[in-house]
User: Fold this.
Amino acid sequence: MQTCSASKGFTLIELLVVISIIGLLASIVLAALGNARSNAKDATLLEEVGQLRTVMELEANSSGGYTNIKLGGGWWAVGQTCTGAAGAYAAEANKICSAMVASAGSCGSGCVWFADLNGPQAYSIMVYLSGKSASAGSAYYFCLGSSGKSSTSPAAVSAGNGTSPGCWANP
Assistant:
């Protein structure tokens, strides 16, 4: 009588299939983590915009306008530390602006912009969103204006695009 010996263990092909499936799953997880980091960075920037807005409103209540904080406004680029704001809330404004510039990532010369517009009674804050820009393949900015309007716009800072709600031409 002949007996069949049962093979114990896995074949090389079976092992390679399992290893390739594990590798595929790992790459999907790592890609998702990268997107989550970018989204978290953008969420941090949006929170900092809200903090700067609060400081600007506190200054307006204190001095009657946004002009003192605006002295620290304009364009801020990678590696810069925001300075120049005046008034009772200058230190807070400079600190928040510097944190926004540091969080904005690879934005070149256009990371953060804020200024008073149409006199001391209106302002706009614009910040480069590195996560949104990376996923869209072009520059995206979040704009927030003194009217409460806000938007996320592609290249909101370029000529003709500043009219999105909250941006420099539509605070």
